[in-house]
Structures are given as structure tokens and as C-alpha cells.
Amino acid sequence: MKSQATVEVLLLAFAVVTGWLACGCVERIARIQTDPPGAFVVVNDEEAGISPVRFSFLWYGDYDIMARKPGYQTLKTHYQINAPWYQYPPIDLVVETLIPNMIRDERVLPTLVLEPIEPPATEDLVGRAVKLREEALFKVIQ
Fold this sequence. Notes:
Shape: elongated
Strand order of the largest sheet: 4-3-6-7
Structural class: alpha/beta
Number of domains: 1
Largest sheet: 4 strands, antiparallel
Oligomer: single chain
Mean pLDDT: 86
């Protein structure tokens, strides 16, 4: 009889602790848009996807962002994602353990504007080609 009561108390304690630990959680999401849309986005050397793109992040801080699209210059930048007030210690411990709902922190980063690549002038290309040909011929003769 006593062992059954002990097992029930342990199961109840386990359920309470498990429920308490599973109470709160923060889901962190960032959204990136590019102008023009459809650029390939890389965040901290990991592929995020084609813009507009949403990705989850684990920590607050500085993120390196790169966007590429054919016909446009590659854009490399960084963005600082600051923590909200409820994610500073010891407030974060209270918020994440006592609030039973999922907290969603969704950030919209500034739009990344990609500049089109301007093709070089024909005269410049011809001039460079002539110069390279002369250098190659001069090296062959020597």
C-alpha cells in the first residue's frame, strides 16, 4: 500500500515537473525581402532560401547576410537583431517557464536592394582584348 502511494506521488511529481518545463517557449523568426524579389539569400553561411524568405534563428545578435541574383551585384551586409525586454536574464527564465503559451518573436529585416550589373562598354572590352593579345604575343616571342 505504501509503495503504491509512493509511485503515485512520484508520477504526479514527474507530471508536474514535465508540465512546468514544457510551459513556455520562444519561436524566433526573421523575414528578408529583396528588391527585386527572387534573390538567393544566405545567412551566416547557411542557405536561407529565395526571397522573400522566412527563417528561424536561435540567438539575438549580429547576422551576416548575402543576397545574389543573376544580372545584379552580390550584396553582402549584416544586421543586428536585438533581444526584446522579456529575453534578458532573469526575466527570460520567468517568462519561458511560467507563461504556458508559445511566444512568437517575428522580425522583418529592412529590404535588401540589389543594384543591376552594368555591362562594360564595347570600347573597353576591345581595348583590353587587344592589350592581352599583344602581351601574349610578346611573351611567345621572348
